[in-house]
Amino acid sequence: MDVLQLTNNKTIMKENLIKPYCCCGESENSLVDNAIFVYFSEEYRRVLLDEILWVEASGSYCVIYMEDGAEITVSYPLDRVFNNDLPFTKFKRIHRSYAINLFKVTGFAGNYVHIGKKMLPVSESHKKDFQACFHKIYSKRALGK
Fold first, then answer.
1. How would you write 106-142 as a 3-class SS string?
2. How confident is the model at residue 33, as a pLDDT?
């Protein structure tokens, strides 16, 4: 049985984790790119993608770290979350165990990315691709080199 377990000990069935969609004439992509919904306590709760800091693999589970300090544990691997639920325009794989929100990066040097006070490793196999994305986003706003 696949479940989503929140840090407040609530458990959610995996099939109740869904992306939003619209049938009212608005752009479906604008809604899908901004949030996912989780169903628990007999209601749907919206999780804004902009509030996700990073996602970390933990065996066959992964943990989603949020801006407000919440940690959401889902019962499927990072590959599935990263490839199916997170838009590539906002999130980047930096390691076999980590995917980050590119717009939450506060710095990087060598083989580490900083998101707030947290240092996350960047593997050699993902380093070049991450740096290219970082420079594409921030090149007009960066001073120095």
1. CEEECCEEEECCEEEECCHHHHHHHHHHHHHHHHHHC
2. 58
Count structural domains, the chain: 1
Instruction: Count CA atoms within 13 Å of residue 58 on its CB side.
Output: 13
Banded pLDDT at 77 (limits 50, 70, 90): confident
Alpha-carbon span 123 to 67, nearest angstrom? 24
Q: Which domain holds residue 121?
A: 3-141
Residue 122 has pLDDT above 70, yes or no: yes
Q: Rounded to whole angstroms, what are the CA distances from 109 to 119, 130, 134?
A: 10, 12, 12
- CATH number of residue 62's parent domain: 2.40.50.1020
Comparison of pLDDT for 37 and 71, the residue scoring more: 71
